[in-house]
Amino acid sequence: MNKSELIDEVAANTDFSKAAIRRVLDATIDIITSELKKGQPVMFIGFGKFKVTRRPARNSRNPRTGVKLKIAAVTAPVFSAGKLLRDAVNI
Questions:
Q1: Cα separation of 65 and 58, whole Å?
Q2: Are 66 and 53 within 8 A, CB to CB?
Q3: How far apart are alpha carbons 7 and 5 in whole angstroms?
Q4: For a designed S-S bond to 42, which of 13, 34, 50, 52 qualifies (C-beta 3.0 to 4.6 A apart)?
Q5: Vertex 16, ends 10 and 22: CA angle to 5°?
Q6: Which fold, 41-91?
Q7: How do the domains of the chain map onto residue ranges?
Q8: pTM tops 0.85
Q9: Contact call for residues 5 and 11 (beta carbons, < 8 A)
Q10: Residue 91 above 80 pLDDT?
Q11: Is 36 in contact with 62 (CB distance < 8 Å)?
């Protein structure tokens, strides 16, 4: 499911217009992104938790050529599923 399909599905299950749902979804994504940029986790009890993790720099090797590479440190968003979501998906 992509963003447009999600908006269509929510509109079909509510009394809200697609335009209103799109604005709410865009605002939600912007707020989650903003909080993650600040290093703050975003939790939805039962659904899951968005947080930021730091991966340190490391050395690697190109398996094809054998050339050693330096992989830079990165800050990456991570999602951990909550218990209710895990239980719902675990059929």
A1: 18
A2: no
A3: 5
A4: 50
A5: 65
A6: HU Protein; Chain A (4.10.520)
A7: 1-39, 41-91
A8: no
A9: no
A10: no
A11: no
